[in-house]
Structures are given as C-alpha cells and as structure tokens.
Amino acid sequence: MVVRHTPLGHDIDGTSFDSVLVQDDSSPPNPSTVLVLHGMEGRSDAQLQFAERLTEWGYQAIAVDLFGAEVTRGGMAATSAAMTAFVGDRDALARRLDAVYAALTNEPQVDPARVAAIGFCFGGLCVLDLARAGHALTGVAAFHGLLTAPHRPSDGPVTARIAVYHGWDDPYAPPEDVVALGRELSGRDIDWQLHAYGNTMHAFMAPWAADPQRGIQYSEAAARRAWTSLRYFLEECFGAEVQATDR
Which of 20, 153, 157, 164 is the most buried (most CB within 10 A)? Predict the structure, then answer.
C-alpha cells in the first residue's frame, strides 16, 4: 500500500487554503470521499493521520483546511482566535463552510454524490453545521464536538445521517447540550445516533491530550470504540459500494 498526499490548494476571498487529498494505490477506482475537519489547531499532521487510517477502509480522504494557510502558520494563538471568532459568529462560519465544501466537492477527484465528513472538537461542530445546512453529504460524524445549534438554524431538509461520539464528562458539551441536540435532530426528522462514553473527557481521540484540570484527556478505550463504530457507520452511509477490509 502506497499512500499519496496531493495538495488541494484553493483561494476564497483572497485567502489561500491548503487542504490535502489522501489516497492509497490499493483503493477501488473512484472511491468515496471522507472530509476530515480539524479542531482548534488548524490543518495538522494528526488530521492527516486520521485521513490515512480512512484509506485502510477503502476510502479517499481530504484533510480540510478551514482557517487558511496563513492562520495555521501563526500557531495556536492565531488558530484559537480564528476558532473563537467562528464559534461566536455562526453565520460567518456557515459562509466559510459553504465555500470550502463547494471548493472541495468540485475537485475532479471527488464525486459529490459520495461524500461524508468527520470532525474533531471544533471540526465536530462544523460537520454538524454542514449537515444542519442541508449539504448533500451521505453522513457526518462528530468526535468530542461542540453541540450547540446555530443562532439562526436552517429549517430545510437534512439528508445526511448523523453520528455523535461524546465524552460524558466533556465540560465543553455538558449534558444539557446533549439533550438539546437530541431534541433538535429528532425535531427535524434526522437519522441520528449518539454514543456517549462514561468517565471520558474532551479530546478523547487525541493522544496528546493530557490536561484533566481543563477537562481534556485522551482515552484509549473511548477512542478505539468510537473509531470502530465509525467504520460501520460509514459502511452504512455509503452502502455496499465500499467493502472495508483489514490490512
């Protein structure tokens, strides 16, 4: 298996973005695509590693740049400021998501009818908002994401299936947010599922996370369970066209 990284640079309103397409030579022809959306850190090596793991299941993946290359080069101070601004202005976030999604699904390597998205932390909020906005995704999965609804939510149809992987002790998504999300999704007749892991904090998928005083802690057990569940969720979203195999 040879994994290839292909830059997918594009500009939006004068800002350069550096998403990366991740493929391997053993994938089937014209594979389905999974967008991988980053957290506060911006487009990162950890994100690329998740994308590479998806190729083992027969998909191609895109490590999506949501902040722009210049912001990411500015380090954590710049990326955290960008995230805070978008969380505080969900209309601006919606415009950014619309533009990035359109740019990537127009790439010649991508079949826009066969695209799913996963996201971590801030990226979890973003994939939920992509689904909420009615984008033609087969499914989205949020890992330890922020769960609050946009200030002005769309009331149009949502076709994407939704999976949420949540640490019950995550201080950034308390139980009232989980209940509100369930009511929101059920109220819109969305096909959704929630996996909540006990004794589990925020950022449980990130091996570097080790700050329990702030509610941030990696969990090998929760990460393994969530990733295993994602495999079957994606198979359900894409149907029989992708046959995941162990390698």
Answer: 164
**Cβ-contact 228, 214 below 8 angstroms:** no
How far apart (Å, rounded) are the C-alpha atoms in residues 3 and 132?
33
Helix axes 122-132, 90-105, angle to 10 degrees: 80
pLDDT in tens, 77-124: 999 999 999 999 999 999 999 999 999 999 999 999 999 999 999 999
Q: How far apart are CA 132 and CA 184, in angstroms?
A: 10
Beta strand 33-37 pairing with 115-120:
parallel
pLDDT digits 0-9 by tens, 112-170: 999 999 999 999 999 999 999 999 999 999 999 999 999 887 888 999 999 999 999 99
Confidence (pTM)? 0.95
